[in-house]
Structures are given as C-alpha cells and as structure tokens.
What does this fold into?
Amino acid sequence: MFGLVYLRMGTSQVSLQNRTGILFFMAMNQAFGSSIDTATVIPRQLQVVSRERAAKMYGVLPFYMANFGSSLLLQTPMQLLNAALVYFMVNLRPTPEAFFVYFGILLLESQCAVALGMLLSAAIKSTEVAPQVAPAVVVLFLMFSGYFLNEASIPVWLTWLSNISFIGWTFQALCINEFQGRAFDCDGPAGESFCFDGDTWLATLNFDEGTLGDRLLYLVYILAAFHAVAYLVLVLRAPKFLPLKPHGKASDAVPAVPESPASVAPETV
It folds into this structure.
C-alpha cells in the first residue's frame, strides 16, 4: 500500500490503465480479506453452539446476526481505512462526491464478502478446511469479475458466474464512479488524433451499459442471497435427537420378577 504513495496519477492516457488496475486491486483486496477471515467463525463455535441450541437457549437468527455483526465490525474498519488512504495517495477522482461513492461501494462489497464467509462458515464444519475452500471460491468470482476476462468473451453457459460475482459488480461500480463523464489528456504520439476519455474507456471495458445504481442494486441482491442461503444451511443443520418413547400403559409394564425360593419364608405349622 505505501508503495502507492509515489504513484500520484495525473490525467494522462497512461493513467487510465493505472486507475483501472488500482480499482481492481481494491475490489479484490476487500473481498479476500473479509471472506477468508469470516469463513472459520462458525466452525470454531460449532460444538458449544450445538449444545446451547439443543438446550433451546437461543434460536438460529440471533446467533447468525450476532456473528455477522461482530465479523463486520472486525473486518471492515481497517480495510476501509486502507481504501481511504489509497484513494488520496494515488489521486483518484478528486471530488468529495466521488470519494464518498467509492467508500460506499467498498463498504457494500465488504458486507457481501462477510456474508459469503458466513455462508462458507455455515456449510463447512472443519476449521482446517474452511480457510482452504474460501480462497478458491473468491478466485472463481475473481476470474469472472470482468478484468481478466472480457464480458463479451465469457461463454453463455458460464454467464451466471459473472452475474453472481460481487467482485465484478464492485469493480464495475468503481470504474463508473471514476471514469464516467471525465476528460483525460491526449498525450499520444504526434499526429494521433484519437484518445480515450472516461466514457470511451468504459465502453472498451464493456462497462458502459447500465448505471451505477444498477451495479449497487445487484450487490444488494447478492448480499441478500448469501445471507438467505447461509441462514437456511444453519436451520437445516440444527441438532437432531431421537424422540423419547411415550410412557406405556400399566398393562404394558414389565412384569415383576418372581421371588426366589430362598427368599420365601417357610410356612409355620
């Protein structure tokens, strides 16, 4: 992060690629940190929680909300502080409105990442396996985020992965916030008349369809879906016990064991 302090970008054509790479890095960093650390929250508590749930001390919803809230408070502040520092270090779009939108986008992504971690945490019982599965899932979303693979080149049967990639929607929202309606200097070779502005750069990335609000709405949908599935998994994994048999009737009682002859007193004459 501190190496970026020397990269105070201007508005040259080269800065377009630099800005895009930094925005992708911020979206990736926010997703990895929150989801991987949260993936082990529930497995660490599983034995105690199963016993307490069996005793009906609390339901699934209070337990889930308490874990989500604590994870969000632990994972979010430092990452958002890092995001704010990077914003001013590298001289991203220098307006207050753009900064607060950038901050809000990363905050929403952080909630999605924590929700994904809660889903993996609810589905995986082992504290050793969860940290290994979480990075693989995040990398899958990373590949379909729109940076490594252009959206137009993704096969139709894999577009659903692109649609549920919260990293991809975050990256698109950050790019729209940074580039839309913005002019950049034409500093190409002499005689070169064409240069990119913010809107043509977004069109090159295939991010020109839809609005910033659409991307934020997709993030809200993904956030709600992750929470719903995680909650459902916890409900289905409730402790199960064999039912107690009802008390039988008196006629069904086990007959008394007859007394042994040695215990019977001899008859008196």
Summary: The two ends are 108 Å apart (CA to CA). Residues 1-6 have pLDDT under 50 and may be disordered. The CA atoms of residues 61 and 100 lie 32 Å apart.
